[in-house]
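The material for today's practical consists of a large collection of protein records. An example says more than a description, so a record of this kind follows:
***
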Amino acid sequence: MPVASLLPFTATPNRKSASPTSFRLTEKFILLLVFSGFITLCFGAIFFLPDSSKLLSGVFFRSSSVEAETSVHLNLGFPLRVLTPKVCICCSHGLFALFTGFSLRQGIRVHISKALSLKGATIVDALDTLYIMEMYDEFEAATEWVESNLDFNMNAEISVFEVNIRFVGGLLSAYYLSGKEVFRRKAVELGEKLLPAFKTPTGIPWALLNLKSGIGRNWPWASGGSSILAEYGTLHLEFMHLSELSGRPDFAEKVMNIRKVLNRLDKPQGLYPNYLNPNSGQWGQHHVSVGGLGDSFYEYLLKAWLMSDKTDEEGKKLYYDALQAIEKNLIRKSSGGLTYIAEWKGGLLEHKMGHLTCFAGGMIALGADGGPDDKTGHQMELAAEIARTCHESYARTSMKLGPEAFRFDGGVEAIATRQNEKYFILRPEVIETYMYMWRFTHDPKYRQWGWEAVQALEKYCRVEGGYSGVRDVYANTPNHDDVQQSFYLAETLKYLYLLFSDDDHLPFEHWVFNTEAHPLPVIKKQNVEIRH
C-alpha cells in the first residue's frame, strides 16, 4: 500500500489578509503569551491568531513547499502533497512527559478513561493538533511513542465508541496529514480488533469489547442492555476510511448494515430513540436527545454525505429528515427569546440542554447549504440562535465557562440549577459551533466569544501541569477536578486555533472533522492515481 501524503491545508495559494478586528485580537493574544510565560503543553500557539499574514508569513503550508516523488492510490480526487515543515511555532520539554502519563504537578492527571483501557489516549488524540500547529518536534516524539509503545494486544475491555473516535480517528488523521505509514498500519490493526463487536444477531455492535477474547457486551444501565445511538452511530466516517486504506470492504459493510437495521424500524414522531437492543433489533426506552447518548449519530449522517463528496444520498436524506423531526418536536424558544433543544422522554419534553448539545449549532450551519433551497436561510438563522443560547450559558456564570447542562424551567433560562450539572470539563462543543459560524458568516462576534472563552480558560482552568476542569462554574474561585481530558487537546484547542485561522486552512471542501475533531479527507467517487 503506497504511503498517503499530506493533504493541502489551504485551498488557495495565498492567505487572506487580516481584518482590523483580527489585528486587535492578535495583539491581545501576543500580550497573553508574554504574561503567560511557559505553558507546559506548548499550546501557546493556540493563542496566536493566524489571520495576520505579517505575523505568520511562511508558517502555514503553501503549495510552493518541496514536494515528494510519491505515488498515491486514493479516491481523494485532489492533489496530495508531502510538505516540508518550515517553522515550529513553539517547543516544550514537558509535553511528551505529560503525554506519556507522568504528572508535572502533584495531583494533576491526564485523563485515562476506564472505558478506554488503552495507554496513549492523550498522545493519539493530540497528534493532528500538534501537526496542524506545526509543533513538529513534539509530533516526532509522539510518533516514536506510537511506533514503540502503542499496543492493542491486551486483555482489556474497551469502549468501541471511544476507541474509534479517539484512537482510530486520531491515527487516520495523523496518517493523512503526515503520510507516516505507522499511523495507517496502527489504524487498520485497531480497526480489525474492533470487528468482533459487530457479532450480534442484528449487526448492531456491542458498546464494550474485550480486545483479546473478542467478547462484547453493553452497558448494564442502558435500557436493558441496549446499544446506544451515539455509539453505534458514530463509526461510519472512520470505518469508511479503513476500507479505503486497507482495501477491505468489510469495514464499510459493517457500518452500512447499521443503516439497514435503522431503516427497517419505525421512528416515533420521526425521532431516533437513544437505545436499540442488538439482539431483537427493537428500540429500548423512548428517550431522544441531541446531546449525550444521541448527538454524534446525527452529526455522522450529515458528514457521511459530505465525506462521500456528496454522493451518499441516503445519508443526506436521513440527516435532513432527522433534522426536520428534531425541529418539530424538540426545538423550543424560551420566554426570554433563547432557542434551545430539549430532550424527549416518552413523549414528554424535559426543558434541559446539555453542553454536548451545543455542537448542533455548528452541525446545522454545516448542513444548511445542502438542504432545500427554501430552508438554507432558515437553518443558518437556527444555527445562529443555538450559538447565542450556548454563549448565554457561558455568559451567565461567574467564570464565563459553560455548565455541563442548563435549564429553561422554574423561572431560569440557560442556567444550571442542579449541583451535578454545574461542572466544566474543558468541553469543546461551544467553541466548535463558534468556529463553524465564523467560517460561514464572518460575524466578528464569534471570534470575540472565542476570545472570552480563552480568557476564562487561562484564568480559571490553567494550572501548573496543564489545564483542569472545574467543579462549579458559578463559584467565584475555581475548585479544580485536576483532570485534563484528552479531548481538550484534540478538540477544544484545535477549534480555537481554527476559529482564528483563515478559511482556507483545512478547508471544508477537502476535510470533514470526525466527532473528536480529527480531520479526515473527502473521498472522491472516482479512483484516481495521483503523482507529485
The chain has a mean pLDDT of 84. Residues 376-395 form the longest helix (20 residues).
